[in-house]
Amino acid sequence: MTTRRTTEGSAEPLVVLSHVDKWFGDLHVLRDIDLTIHRGEVVVVIGPSGSGKSTLCRTINRLETIDKGTISLDGEPLPQEGKALANLRAEVGMVFQSFNLFAHKTILENVTLGPIKVRGQKKDAAEKRALELLDRVGVAHQAAKYPAQLSGGQQQRVAIARALAMEPKVMLFDEPTSALDPEMISEVLEVMVDLAQRGMTMVVVTHEMGFARTAGDRVVFMSDGAIVEEAAPEQFFTNPQSDRAKDFLGKILKH
Ligand SMILES: Nc1ncnc2c1ncn2[C@@H]1O[C@H](COP(=O)(O)OP(=O)(O)OP(=O)(O)O)[C@@H](O)[C@H]1O
Ligand SMILES: [Mg+2]
């Protein structure tokens, strides 16, 4: 059980997707998605390959446009372009499977770049904050190194620190541990659990059931572009309702 849990009634909606549809050509990748993510909530998105999980994440920071429906963040519809769009990207932190750090910048520079360029922070202040965040994710002593000198797990923790440096309202994680060697998975998950316990609003695409159970408030199960089932993690994993969820869990539990 998580120590942080808002009571259903008092939680404010932060991200609201309403009747969202998206096509890639003829392929209907998001089908009438209704999803409300409350402030401080951790939503784990799970489902078979190709079910639309990454696309869903990418629509929330507008890396992908939608064809129908609406998405709002903190009561405002997502901006279409320009400076407002750059600000949105700063408010929605994203951590991908591949770490996407700038190879020719140091760890410290990777974390301070956004705050200085987008948020207009002074270099000193940005560096102070970056070192705090790097310390929080356990890599402060690597600040002067370059990404290639770090392990995959360390690079992913830097990627999390870099996203946090922008003071995002919500953090999206798209299979953040699936490219990592097994021994590095837990160190990244620990950072994510800590973040959840500090009250960060998070959308996490992952098949790590330990994480879902420890830190997740809700599991959203997607199949063929639609949300098929939503439940508390324990309920979802022990007693899935739909045949598609049962089938999917049967497959991943065998591994
Ligand atoms: N840019 C694109 N152009 C065309 N089709 C796309 C594009 N991106 C994704 N798709 C297709 O949309 C569907 C949903 O893809 P998406 O990446 O969202 O699935 P996913 O659930 O994240 O899968 P995985 O578990 O493999 O990461 C898939 O059929 C995919 O092939
Ligand atoms: Mg994906």
UniProtKB/TrEMBL annotation:
One of its GO terms (molecular function) is ATP binding. SUPFAM superfamilies: P-loop containing nucleoside triphosphate hydrolases. Belongs to the ABC transporter superfamily. It comes from the Bacteria. The keyword Chloroplast does not apply. Its EC number is 7.4.2.1. It comes from Nocardioides marmotae. This is ABC-type polar-amino-acid transporter.
